């Protein structure tokens, strides 16, 4: 998600182009042009729907039924049947992600700087607005104002944690991981010797093409749901940014009636005001206590990080997060990079996010047209882990990084 720290700019006006822009992408030259009739009218300001407007409920994807699937297919079919220059068409909706996230716009007064919402504080509000209009367009096309996307509940550890080996080794067979059955694990039989993740697809990890797959929107619906959850976790630290530069940043989207609408970050902070909510489902990772894998006596020091303060009071923990910062992470921009972060544990080969020692993940997707050397950092909270591992009295914390 927005894992890489980036610029904190002043309120950003989005370039309002009347001309098209053309640039190269890896698969073919693609013309990214504004939809037809852009110059026929000026954008209108966003207004919240009246309180009596039906509330759309986004349910978890695992609970979908045949009726919903037929409705979604009908809406997508109609969206894809719209003329390519209709701003509500599927290809134009997909191109929104390309334009905002992959160099389609330049920053006002800084023509050499791309306007990008990824890897910045605009990530969550932009994608919330993106899904908001996409969802309303689908509903309009089937005359159903209550139509809502399903969110892909991949943050549930029992349905989202996959063993990497099962997708890289054609001969691997493991019956103990979460999704095993005799048919799902016959990878060798179903796709022969072409078990190469780069050959199995890859467009979903590229910013310019990610929006071309409907599952992309369910994926981001889950990200949006997690943003809501994050705000409700008890403590004083989790609250919206108050910086005016962030709140007043604007975007442009077409609505279900082909009106060009100017929206602001500040109007996206409460999904209920936007007339949509999420289904109430179990959040296992929020309620369940993890169990330490090894005793503290068994630890072997490989890398010790000195703690600035130990034995913090309950009030101190509530008001200030203990954060581990790992900087100087250098890698090629066209390379996938992922590693797990563990604390107080040296035996991490068979460990996973269910263990208390698991502190976080650094993950970034390579872009074949990047050609950049990256230097990034990761921040991960240690407050809960240090307490649960009975490490509050330690002067230093053992940190282990495991490439995946």
UniProtKB/TrEMBL annotation:
Cofactors: Cu(2+)
One Pfam family hit: PPO1_KFDV
PROSITE patterns: TYROSINASE_1, TYROSINASE_2
Keyword annotations: Copper, Disulfide bond, Metal-binding, Oxidoreductase, Thioether bond
Enzyme Commission number(s): 1.10.3.1
Tyrosinase copper-binding domain mapped to chain residues: 118-135, 213-224
Entry-linked Gene3D superfamilies: Di-copper center containing domain from catechol oxidase
Gene Ontology MF terms in the entry: catechol oxidase activity; metal ion binding
InterPro entries: Di-copper_centre_dom_sf, Polyphenol_oxidase_C, Polyphenol_oxidase_cen, Tyrosinase/Hemocyanin, Tyrosinase_Cu-bd
Record-stated family: Belongs to the tyrosinase family.
Annotated protein name in UniProt: Polyphenol oxidase I, chloroplastic
Origin species: Glycine soja
Lineage: Eukaryota, Viridiplantae, Streptophyta, Embryophyta, Tracheophyta
């Amino acid at each position: 998600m927005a894992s890489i720290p980036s610029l904190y700019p002043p309120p950003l006006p989005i370039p309002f182009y009347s001309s098209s822009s053309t640039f190269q992408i890896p698969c073919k030259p693609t013309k990214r042009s504004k939809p037809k009739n852009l110059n026929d009218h000026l954008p209108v300001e966003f207004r919240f729907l009246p309180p009596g407007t039906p509330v759309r409920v986004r349910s978890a994807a695992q609970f979908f039924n045949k009726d919903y699937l037929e409705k979604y297919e009908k809406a997508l079919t109609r969206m894809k049947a719209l003329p390519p220059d209709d701003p509500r068409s599927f290809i134009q909706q997909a191109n929104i992600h390309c334009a905002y996230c992959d160099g389609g716009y330049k920053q006002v007064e800084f023509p050499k700087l791309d306007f990008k919402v990824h890897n910045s504080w605009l990530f969550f509000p932009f994608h919330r607005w993106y899904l908001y209009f996409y969802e309303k367009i689908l509903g309009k096309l089937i005359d159903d104002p209550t139509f809502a996307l399903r969110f892909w509940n991949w943050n549930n550890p029992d349905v989202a944690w996959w063993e990497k080996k099962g997708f890289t080794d054609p001969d691997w067979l493991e019956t103990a991981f979460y999704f095993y059955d005799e048919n799902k694990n016959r990878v060798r039989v179903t796709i022969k010797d072409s078990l190469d993740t780069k050959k199995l697809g890859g467009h979903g990890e590229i910013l310019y093409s990610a929006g071309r797959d409907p599952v992309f929107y369910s994926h981001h619906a889950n990200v949006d749901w997690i943003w809501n959850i994050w705000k409700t976790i008890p403590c004083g630290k989790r609250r919206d940014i108050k910086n005016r530069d962030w709140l007043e940043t604007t975007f442009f989207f077409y609505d279900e009636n082909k009106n060009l609408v100017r929206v602001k970050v500040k109007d996206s902070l409460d999904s209920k005001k936007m007339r949509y909510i999420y289904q109430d489902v179990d959040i296992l990772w929020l309620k369940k206590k993890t169990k330490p894998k090894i005793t503290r006596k068994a630890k072997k020091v490989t890398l010790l990080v000195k703690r600035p303060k130990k034995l913090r009071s309950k009030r101190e923990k509530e008001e200030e997060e203990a954060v581990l910062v790992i900087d100087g992470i250098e890698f090629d921009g066209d390379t996938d990079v992922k590693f797990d972060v563990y604390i107080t544990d040296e035996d991490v080969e068979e460990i996973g996010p269910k263990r208390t020692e698991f502190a976080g993940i650094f993950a970034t997707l390579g872009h074949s047209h990047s050609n950049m050397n990256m230097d990034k950092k990761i921040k991960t909270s240690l407050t809960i882990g240090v307490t649960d591992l009975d490490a509050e009295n330690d002067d230093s914390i053992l940190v282990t990084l495991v490439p995946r």
